[in-house]
Amino acid sequence: MIVLVASCTSQPHGKIITVTGDIPASQIGRTLEHEHILTDYFRQEDNRPETYTADDVMDKVIPELQKAKTLGIQTIVECTPACVGRDVKILKELSLKTGMYILTNTGYYGAQNNRFLPPEVLLMTAKELAKKWIAEFEQGIEGTGIKPGFIKIGVDRKALSEFHATLARAAALTHKATGLTIMAHSGPAIAAFQELEILKEEGVSPEAFIWTHATDEKDPTRLVEAARLGAWISADKYGWDDSLVARYPRLLKMMKDEGVLNKVLISHDAGWYDPGQPEMDFKPYTPIPEKLISDLKKLGFTEDDINQLLIKNPANAFAVRKRLIKE
Fold first, then answer.
1. Does this model's pTM top 0.90?
2. Domain residue ranges of the chain, discontinuous segments joined by +
3. What's the CATH code, domain 3-326?
4. 20 to 30 A Cα–Cα from 33, which one of 101, 159, 180, 262?
5. DSSP assigned state of 174
6. Could you report the per-residue pLDDT of 113-149, keeping only the tens digit for each?
7. Which residues fall within 8 angstroms of residue 285, CB to CB, at 6 or more apart?
């Protein structure tokens, strides 16, 4: 018989690791669980590109963070991984300047056929990858002392390749050593359920797993199925186009009616400053507080439901604790 180690889904507990240090999970406030601040698709060789300065990022991003804060957002989960522009020093400076909490991550993004990963990474085993990610958790990222608050992996929108299965296994090993939650850029259900199976093989509960871009799956019953297993369902592209704006309230209502609203996370996947396109329009972090909340209330969502989505669920999802399967 397999029994999941219970995690509290009623009241947040444990700690959250932000770029400025640990906070109690109960302190997280309204949270956007999947956003981007700085993403660099052009300089993949290192994390210190000379194509931007801290001031460039501050000038672009601080006004956007302040708009979100004015609307009640307290925490941003910044999902840009290593090799795609993760710059934790800038994230810490932004947090200090705005008074908002920001989380960063460890892990690797293998989506888009691994195009952002150094060749040597593709040769690493799951244990070797996990060792590297665990070191960032224990020692801090790149000598900064800033620690990751979650694990971010990315896979392609299809059945897992051998290397992408390795990424999932490395994430499971890292979770077992650190208690960090696994955020997996997966898209349709095929990859997400394969990742969940790998976690099961490693003794990791679905409650340690965030199915990112879950709303790319066309069959909503698969979202309910994963939620009932215990996985977190990330509805994270709100505000990108009119069809999504119209669809999301109905989708969230379905999740509520199915009794799994306590496993849903919402965000925009918005932003960001791009050094290769510094004049690119910044997708704001504001459509959820400006529009989605009122649309949900028209469908009968209570203030408690809204706080479930924006406060309680993120606090429980990102609280650092080992979520394992007991035989």
1. yes
2. 3-326
3. 3.20.20.140
4. 159
5. H
6. 999 999 999 999 999 999 999 999 999 999 999 999 9
7. 32, 35, 64, 65, 67, 68, 73, 76, 268, 270, 271
